[in-house]
Amino acid sequence: MKTLLALLILAGALIVTGLLVVFKPEANEVVPERPLPQVEVVEVQPESVQLTVKSQGTVLPRTESDLSAEVSGRIVEVADNFRAGGFFRAGDVLLRIDSADYEAAVAAAAAELANAQLALAQEEAQSEQASADWSALGQGEASELTLRKPQLAQAKARTESARANLKRAERDLARTELTAPFDGRVLRTQADLGQYVSAAPAAPVARIYATDRAEIRLPVTSREAELLETKDRRQRFVRLRKANAPGSPVWVARFARMEATIDPASRLLYVVAELEDPFTPNARHPEPLRRGQFVGAEIEGRSLSEAYVLPRYALRGSDTLYVVTGASTLETRQVRIVQSDAEQVVISSRVGLPPDIEPAEPPETTGQGGKPTLLRSTPTQGLQPGDRVVTSPIAYYVEGMPVQLMADE
After folding, report:
1. Which residues constitute the domain of residue 370?
2. Is 112 among the domain residues?
3. What is the mean pLDDT of each successive set of 10 residues along the chain, which is 409 residues long?
4. Closest among 263, 191, 228, 283 to 50, alpha carbons compared
5. Domain boundary residue among 305, 340, 355?
6. CB atoms within 10 A of CB 30
7. Of 187, 226, 232, 291, which sits with the fewest C-beta atoms within 10 Å of its C-beta?
């Protein structure tokens, strides 16, 4: 009885299973849609751009020289500002050398001149008397010696020599006072009170520099130099800031010149910026600079009437951009880059590739029916006003792929 019941249960289970298999519901097939890549774009328009070149340099005075004694002697007086960092004005006496010997030399030269003038006066009188005597008693033409002309010339020469010696002695006496040749500051001193100094250029007593003007030599590459060369003669400027100092004030210097020689070691050119009165407090500058101050510079270069400015991260590779077409597909554009840095890139508005770039031949592939199909892989050249340039990163890129703008969500 139990065996029959088990067989009936098993048979019923098989029947139910078979019915479920036979009458199972049909599943609907759903093809998943691949989402379109979303991109951010910026619509470009040509604009006027002032090109600049960044560099760094050291602030140094335009005039810096050694101060040397022109006469020898012992230093008997030193000015209070004759110390490293001291300010002075043109004509200020910085130190004095013992003048006793030079005063004596002036007195001796003056006496020598007086004797020479006396001898000249006597000789002139004798020459006049000789001329009168010959006119009264002589016959024929008198010789120059008879008329005492050589003696008179000798007396005049001795007088002039004595006068020159007196001027030299007076000049040496004046040189016992070392005066400042310009407004400036003392960089360092090499002599002090009581020291004996010699009239030798190789042994200066101090090194001084003028405070009226400073020059900053700024290295640039040959490519950057091309961006700075202009045909117009307008005055250009260089903005200076303290290097590695956020929030530094700005000094506006004048673009003075570009040196004509390329440094053979570094292969760099140098732009010279000129800054007036940089070392003293004045209303012209936010604060005084120091000699040897290291500064960053932004050099004003050429002006472009029409160019495109884009974020640096919009550039793909060295000279390629992705542009969204009117059909919301991606297109590659190859552009001419005028200037680029870590933040932005300036692109020429001129359509076309540079002469040294040739477009590659498009690859050939097989389409439907085995017929060859050309894929468009050669980039379109340049940008046009209103083009939408992709600025967001793209995980993968296929020419002509459809995309969706993030603003269209």
Report:
1. 38-49+307-408
2. yes
3. 71 71 66 77 91 94 94 95 93 95 95 94 87 76 80 91 95 94 94 92 92 95 88 85 88 92 93 93 86 94 89 89 91 90 86 41 42 44 89 87 77
4. 228
5. 305
6. 6
7. 232
